[in-house]
Amino acid sequence: MEKIEQKGIQSILFNEPPCILSGASVVGKKEGEGPLKDYFDEIIEDAMFGKDNWEEAESEFMKEACNLAITKSKVDLKQIRYLFGGDLLGQLIGTTFGISALKIPFFGLYGACSTIGEALSLGSITISSGAADYVLATTSSHFASAEKQFRYPLEYGNQRPLAATWTVTGSAAFVLSKDEGDILVKGITTGKIMDYGIKDSMNMGACMAPAAADLIYQNLKDFQIKPDYYDKIITGDLGKVGQEILFKLLKDNGVNIERNHMDCGIEIFDDTTQDTHAGGSGCGCSATTLAGLIMNRMSSRKWKRVLFIPTGALLSTVSFNEGQTVPGIAHGVILERR
Amino acid sequence: MEKIEQKGIQSILFNEPPCILSGASVVGKKEGEGPLKDYFDEIIEDAMFGKDNWEEAESEFMKEACNLAITKSKVDLKQIRYLFGGDLLGQLIGTTFGISALKIPFFGLYGACSTIGEALSLGSITISSGAADYVLATTSSHFASAEKQFRYPLEYGNQRPLAATWTVTGSAAFVLSKDEGDILVKGITTGKIMDYGIKDSMNMGACMAPAAADLIYQNLKDFQIKPDYYDKIITGDLGKVGQEILFKLLKDNGVNIERNHMDCGIEIFDDTTQDTHAGGSGCGCSATTLAGLIMNRMSSRKWKRVLFIPTGALLSTVSFNEGQTVPGIAHGVILERR
C-alpha cells in the first residue's frame, strides 16, 4: 500500500499518518480575556512583548511559541529537519526575525490567514515522504502590525464596520512527527484561489466564505463522506458574516454543516464584551485555537474527527487600491484522535 | 529502498527522482536584449504587457509562462495536482492574480528571490511522496513593481550604487513529473536563514552570499562530494559583489568553486552596455535562466550535473526602516541529465 493515496481531485489520504506531537499557543491580552483564555499556554499582557515596535513584538510571539512547542515535544532541536512558517506581513518579516535563531532549514509560506493549514499540509507531506522525521509548523499575527499594514494608523481611530474582524495577536507552533502523538493528520484537501469578485476589504468573511465552501464540498466529495463523518468542521476566521454565507453556499449545493460547524474567529472573542464585531482573524486566530481549544477537545476524546480549515483573504493594499478584488483560499487538514 | 533518503543535516536524495518535464520563460525588453536573449521563449516589448499597472503586468508574465509550460509539457491541466508559486510583492499579488484562472490547488511560497528553489524543492518532495503525478512551479518579478515596493518611485530617478542589482522583469514556470523528462531532480539542500548583520539594502549580493556559501558547503558535506562533482554550481542573483564574497567565504572554509561557478544575475545582463551594475536579481532572474540557458545546456548534454541555488534577500522596507538587518536564504536543487 502506498503511504499516500490521491483522493478525488484535491485531496490526499495518509495511510501512515503523521501526528501532531505538540502544539503551543502564545497570545495577547485581549485574547487572554476572551472565551478561550483557559486553553492558551501563555498570555502576554504587553502588546510590545518588551520590543521596540509591533513587528518585532510579533516575531517575539512566534519565537516563544516555537520554543514552547519544541520543549513540549521533548524532541531535540537538531532532529527538526524543516520549519514551515509564515505570517501576514510583507515579505514575512514576522517569521524571518521570529525563527532565524532556531537555524532550522526553512520553507517560507504565504496563504494569508490560511497559512497554518498550508504549513500543516506541507509538513505532513514532507514527513510522509520520508524527507523528515520531525518538522515545525508555525504562524503569527499581531493586531497592530496588521492594522498598520492593511488598514489605517491606529492613532487615526477609524470606525470599524460590523462585518470587520479583529486581528488576533498571537502565534502558535506545532511539532509534527512520523509516528508519535495522539492526533493524526489523516489527510489534506488543498484549496484553489476562489474569486467571487468581492472588493470590500472590511468584509473578509465574505471574501473567504466561497473558498471555505468549495473546500468543504470537495473534501466530502473526494472522500465520499457526509458532513457528520466529522465531529466538527472548523473554519479559520470567517466570523459571523462569513459563516452565514458559508452555510448558504453549501446549502445551495445540498450540504448542511450547521449542526457541527465551528469558526475559530467566532469562538476566540466575545463581541458583546470585547467589541470585536464579526470575530477574530489573522494567521494567529485558527493556529492558536488549534493549539488551544481544538487539541484539548481531541486529546480528551470529546472530538474524534475534525476537519480543520484555516481560511485566507488574499488582500494587499496595493492590488486593492488598484481596484482588484480580494480572492480567498482555504487549506483543509483532517485530524483524527488515535 | 526508501524513495527519499535523508542526507546529513540539510539534504535529501531522491532515489526515484522527479523530473522537470517542461520549462518556459517569458521576459521583458531589457532581458530580451541581454546575453541570454536566445534562450527565452518569449520576449514582451511592452513592460505593461497591455495592462493598467505594473502589478497586473507582472501577473500577466506569470500567466503566460504557466500556460506555455503546460502546453510544452503536453500534460492535461486537470492532471496538475498542485501549484507551488510566489513572487516578491507583499501578499504575493503577482502570483494570486497570475494563477487564479488556472484553478489548481495552490501553495503560496515566499523565499524572496530564492522562491523558485523553494517551489522546485517542495514540488519534488510532493511528487516523490506520491501526493501528485504532476505539479507546476512558478515565480515572477518585475523591475517596476519591485522598485515601487522596495526602493524609490521610478519618477524620482535615484542614482544606483555599483553594488545594486537590477530586478529582472519576467516569469518562468516548470511542470514537474513523476518520471517523464530528461532533467532529474536528484536531491535538494534546504537553506536556513543566515544573518551576518548586513543592513545595506542596496547591496543584496552581500546579504545573500553567506546563505549561498553555507548552502554549498552543506551540500558538499551532506553528500560527501567535492565541487567538481558538478559541471556547474549556479547561484541565483548574487551579482559581481556577492560572487566575490561567496568565493572568499568558501575559500575560508577550504572550498574553491571558482572553476565551475556561474551566477544567473551576472549572466542575464551585460553591464557594459545595459547599465545594470552588479547584475540581475528578482525571483524571475534564476527562474528564467533555468528555463532558458540552464535547461538548454543540460538538454544538449553540455552539462550533466548542476547544483542550482536560487538566493533570496529577506528585505522588507518596514523591517529595514526599523533598523533591522537584511538576512539571506538559499535553496539548493541538484539537477542531473538522465
Overview of the molecule:
2 copies of one chain form a homodimer. By secondary structure, chain A is α/β, with parallel strands linked by helices. The first copy, chain A, contains 10 helices and 16 strands. Chain A has helices at residues 54-73, 93-99, 115-129, 143-150, 204-222, 239-252, 264-268, 271-274, 283-299, 317-321, and strands spanning 4-7, 11-14, 19-28, 42-44, 80-87, 106-108, 134-141, 166-167, 170-177, 183-190, 232-235, 261-263, 280-281, 305-309, 311-313, 328-337. The model of chain A has no long low-confidence stretch (mean pLDDT 96). At the A-B interface, β1, β5, α2, β6 and α3 of A face β1, β5, α2, β6 and α3 of B.
Major protein interface: A-B, 63 and 63 residues
Rounded to the nearest angstrom, the distance between the terminal CA atoms of chain A is 20 Å
Query: What is the quaternary state of this protein?
Result: homodimer
Which CATH C-level class of the largest domain in chain A is it? Alpha Beta
Q: What fraction of residues of chain A sit in β-strands?
A: 25-35%
Query: In the CATH hierarchy, what is the superfamily of the largest domain in chain A?
Result: Stage V sporulation protein AD
* Tally of DSSP helical segments of chain A: 10
Structural class category of chain A? alpha/beta
CATH domain topology of the largest domain in chain A = Peroxisomal Thiolase, Chain A, domain 1
**General shape of chain A:** globular
Largest sheet of chain A: 14 strands, mixed
The total domain count of chain A is 2
Q: How many strand elements of chain A?
A: 16
Average the pLDDT over all residues of chain A and give the rounded result.
96
